[in-house]
Amino acid sequence: MAFHIWEGTAVRLRPIQSSDWEKFHQDGMDSEVARLNDAIYGPRSEEGTKKWTERESEKGWDGHNFRLAIENLNSELVGSISTNSCDPQNGTFSYGVSIFREHWKKGYASDAIRVVLRYFFGELRYQKVNAHVYAFNEGSVRLHERLGFVEEGRLRNMVYTDGGYHDVLLFGQTYEEFMARRGTHECTIQKN
């Protein structure tokens, strides 16, 4: 069986397609998910979501900063993952992941994160990944702990939502920490 770098044990990553608009629109109407991921924004029309997915589907590939759809191995769209703050000179990057509510607790987020880390560490020679997690997002805190991230700091009262201020936790993982936790199902990568 051929190895595909954009596929894990539970998900595969692919470009966002304009036909994905309806799932993203439905997800955008869930205020709890919006609060856990980023912030609650004003309502978006169906046409606005269609335009957003169309723009996402037309974006070119730079290899570093991207947003990809997450689908399970039955080809069902279950969420998205994006990378940001990519610094090739220093070898650091960050990411954000969002799984649609009906697909929570199925291992899709952790598998998508591992796929992205495998690419950044194994193909792009990055050294470290950083994740900013809202302290009230207990599921994301546990996810990062299970993935072997180290809590490196806390930014106090950084986010105002749901009537109060909340901390942001800073998690990090190095190439060496990732390699020490890798499963045998993944391809072999060497740091040059």
UniProtKB/TrEMBL annotation:
UniProt xrefs under InterPro entries: Acyl_CoA_acyltransferase, GNAT_dom
Domain of life of the native organism: Bacteria
Domain named N-acetyltransferase: residues: 11-176
PANTHER family documented for this protein: ACETYLTRANSFERASE, SPERMIDINE N(1)-ACETYLTRANSFERASE
Protein name: GNAT family N-acetyltransferase
